[in-house]
Amino acid sequence: GESVGLHLPTLSVQEGDNSIINCAYSNSASDYFIWYKQESGKGPQFIIDIRSNMDKRQGQRVTVLLNKTVKHLSLQIAATQPGDSAVYFCAENTSNAGGTSYGKLTFGQGTILTVHP
Amino acid sequence: DAGVTQSPTHLIKTRGQQVTLRCSPKSGHDTVSWYQQALGQGPQFIFQYYEEEERQRGNFPDRFSGHQFPNYSSELNVNALLLGDSALYLCASSPPGAKNIQYFGAGTRLSVL
């Protein structure tokens, strides 16, 4: 069935360190993955996405790695800052045979990232 | 340019009552998806509206229904509220042709007593 899960529920790092948040997914048909950041009292905020035909994508201070062989996704945050403290979710999506996305995102449980000054 | 807006921000109801939550999508977006987020969990997909019709539905009972208006705004209705319906309800909107690109509002916190 469709499920997306996270290995670690909490992660504490020092300011300036690099952070790595992991995610496992089970639906081999998923072809699009997104990382969201959710701060207290706010809705999820888009961070970065990656399609299944890629294995790495970089953004500003963030990198997403996709390993389809083991169905694993990770988010790397470089030089983590206190403002990065939040809950991070991975989400997956599937498209139909014609490549049209259904837009039904399946979210994992989330990882709480705490950055200490 | 306003993002996705939801109202109300907080709501308290009692068991058995009915509730309506509202969502205005981001300007230019035509698809609205609704999610339920229980405390400490990730959002769960309820349903999606496009061209004023429900296009996809998650594993939620018929007590959950919705509507989309010609201006693309949307409502989520929940009937016969249960204690377990207490959650943060999130609305997400998507631009034309990209339903997987979803921008979320801040949500409505529903408490059922």
Outline of the structure:
Helices cover 0% and strands 50% of the residues of chain A. Chain A is mostly beta strands and 117 residues long. In chain A, strand 4 and strand 5 (45-51) form a beta hairpin.
Mind explaining what this structure looks like?
- The complex is a heterodimer of chains A (117) and B (113).
- By secondary structure, chain A is mostly beta strands.
- Chain A has one domain (4-116): Immunoglobulins (Immunoglobulin-like), CATH 2.60.40.10.
- In chain A, 0% of the residues lie in helices and 50% in strands.
- Chain A is globular, with a radius of gyration of 14 Å.
- Chain B has a single domain, classed as Sandwich (Immunoglobulin-like).
- Chain B contains no helices and 11 strands.
- In chain B, the strands form 2 sheets. In chain B, strands 2, 4, 5, 6, 9, 10 and 11 form a 7-stranded mixed sheet that branches. In chain B, strands 1-3-8-7 form a 4-stranded antiparallel sheet, with no helix packed on it.
- Chain A binds chain B through residues 4, 32, 34, 36, 41-46, 49, 89, 91, 93, 95, 100-110, and chain B through 4, 31, 33, 35, 40-45, 48, 56, 58, 90, 92, 94, 98-107.
Descriptive terms for the model:
heterodimer; A: 117 residues; mainly beta; Immunoglobulin-like; six-stranded mixed beta sheet; five-stranded antiparallel beta sheet; globular; B: 113 residues
Q: Tell me the number of structural domains of chain A.
A: 1
Spans of chain A of at least 5 consecutive residues whose pLDDT stays below 50 are: none
Q: What structural class results from the helix and strand content of chain A?
A: mainly beta
Q: Secondary-structure element order of chain A, as H and E?
A: EEEEEEEEEEE
* Shape call of chain B: globular
User: What is the CATH homology-level superfamily of chain B?
Assistant: Immunoglobulins
CATH superfamily of chain A: Immunoglobulins
Assigned CATH class of chain A: Mainly Beta
Low-confidence stretches of chain B: none
Distance between the termini of chain A: 41 Å
Name of the CATH architecture of chain A: Sandwich
User: End-to-end span of chain B in angstroms?
Assistant: 37 Å
Strand segment tally of chain B: 11
Please tell me what the overall shape of chain A is.
Answer: globular
Helix coverage percent of chain B = under 10%
Provide a count of the helices of chain A: 0
CATH level-3 fold name of chain B: Immunoglobulin-like
State the major sheet of chain B.
7 strands, mixed
Discrete helix count of chain B = 0
CATH architecture of chain B: Sandwich
